[in-house]
Specification:
Elements (H helix, E strand, L loop, with lengths): L2 H8 L20 E6 L8 H15 L3 E6 L20 H22 L12 E4 L1 H4 L4 H7 L6 H5 L2 H7 L8 H4 L1 H16 L3 E5 L3 H15 L4 E5 L34 H9 L3 H11 L4 H13 L5 H15 L1 H14 L11 H8 L4 E2 L3 E2 H7 L6 H9 L3 E3 L2 E3 L4 E2 L3 E5 L3 E5 L1
């Protein structure tokens, strides 16, 4: 299957400057860049979809230049509804380190080499490296002079911010698109990169780079974007701004922005039948032939959830590795087995579970266990869950508040667990 065919099959096709997608198959220059700003210390499964598109290009011979926006992260990508809170320089530096590691891990896994993927072809760059020594006048002369205000004011996000009922926009965020445009120009000059990949929501910003390359280098550059991924359960896009973030970080880097590997696996395992075919093409490395076979077998016996299991295994392997995927699969089978006696687990087994589930110390009130492990948003909600029979301790439902003084597995609802030890 050619690159253009695979992009279409997996749903990685939105707005683009490339009139004929088949041109990607024979493009003379096979270099692209994709960027992420360090606005948090983890990226989400919304970003992961774009990274899986990047990996698709890599598998077809393209060299990736992956940008962590140390400069743009200090400004913030403009939202439709208001200004972003500025991050401190220490926050930006911390976030850069965290998401850089996540991006490298995903690409090196998703390029087809698995856990032992090579980093030889992966070039990581940071736009702070070329912006830290650029002064304001230089930026205005080289970049600002090449954009008309009319052109910038016509951008959709600007119109939403300055139109009737809009929150207004600062000059800093208004200038964001120029900074991103210069990134493309710099990478073109430095490395010969003439293709930018992005999510559909970034398409407008990416055209600034095309404009600069045309004006200053008299050269042609292109953009290829992928649709935003929509959460089938809520109808909202996957992402932190929507309040439904599923994070790639499997443990807390300091901000609380993480999703445990067990919960990550459960998220995919519990996708509805009408979404699983759409998601398995985007988020796994399964071949089209393997996917078609899985979907066919799933439709014959949907109660076996063959497609959901393949999806959960595939995406967890890409993000956290084959070992972690196997471990949470085994843990899932154990915790959801009706014959499991939760009081008979050995100390070693409990310690193994604790690597993938939130943990609190013995001697903690059940209400606090639920809150401290994220199984409840507040003590009020925790008490409601307990009173409503939604909480069990070592497999036994409880309806009153108790202290947990022994090694225990606490369950809330259908698939949320925590360890007390």
């Amino acid at each position: 299957m050619k690159l253009s065919e695979e992009l279409k099959y997996r749903g990685f096709v939105a707005e683009t400057t490339i009139e004929n997608p088949e041109d990607l198959d024979t493009r003379a220059s096979k270099k692209f860049y994709w960027g992420a700003d360090p606005s948090a210390d983890s990226i989400t499964i919304g970003n992961l979809a774009a990274l899986m598109m990047c990996a698709c290009f890599v598998r077809h011979g393209y060299q990736p230049y992956l940008l962590v926006g140390g400069a743009t992260g200090q400004i913030g990508d403009p939202k439709d509804n208001g200004e972003r809170e500025l991050k401190t320089l220490d926050e930006v530096e911390h976030n850069k380190k965290c998401i850089r590691e996540q991006i490298e891990r995903v690409i090196n896994s998703a390029d087809g080499d698995g856990d032992n993927g090579s980093t030889a072809s992966l070039v990581m760059v940071d736009n702070y490296d070329w912006f830290r020594d650029m002064n304001y006048l230089q930026f205005l002369r080289e970049v600002g002079k090449n954009f008309s205000m009319t052109q910038l004011l016509d951008r959709q996000f600007v119109q939403k911010r300055i139109g009737e009922g809009g929150a207004g926009i600062s000059y800093a965020e208004f200038s964001y698109t120029l900074i991103q445009g210069y990134d493309f120009l710099h990478l073109y000059r430095q490395y010969g990169v003439d293709l930018q990949l992005c999510g559909a929501d970034q398409y407008g910003n990416t055209t600034s780079g095309i404009h600069l390359i045309k004006r200053l280098e008299d050269a042609t550059a292109d953009v290829w974007s992928t649709p935003l991924i929509i959460d089938p359960a809520t109808g909202r896009k996957f992402g932190k701004s929507e309040g439904n973030a599923i994070w790639l970080a499997g443990s807390d880097n300091g901000s609380g922005n993480y999703t445990s590997i067990f919960d990550f696996y459960q998220f995919w395992l519990n996708q509805p039948d009408d979404a699983v075919e759409y998601l398995i093409k985007i988020y796994t490395l399964l071949t089209p032939e393997e996917i078609d076979d899985i979907i066919a077998r799933h439709k014959e016996a949907p109660e076996n959830r063959i497609a959901q299991k393949a999806l959960a295994h595939g995406v967890t392997t890409v993000v956290h590795g084959a070992g972690a995927a196997a471990a949470v699969e085994n843990l899932t089978a154990t915790l959801f087995n009706r014959d499991t006696d939760f009081t008979e687990f050995s100390k070693d087994e409990i310690n193994e579970f604790a690597a993938y589930l939130p943990v609190v110390s013995k001697g903690t009130a059940l209400v606090d266990v639920l809150v401290n492990t994220g199984l409840a948003e507040s003590k009020k909600k925790a008490r409601e869950f307990i009173a409503g029979g939604a909480v069990s301790v070592n497999g036994v439902k409880v309806t009153s508040e108790v202290d947990i003084n022994q090694t225990t597995i606490v369950k809330k609802g259908k698939n949320k667990f925590a360890i007390v030890k």
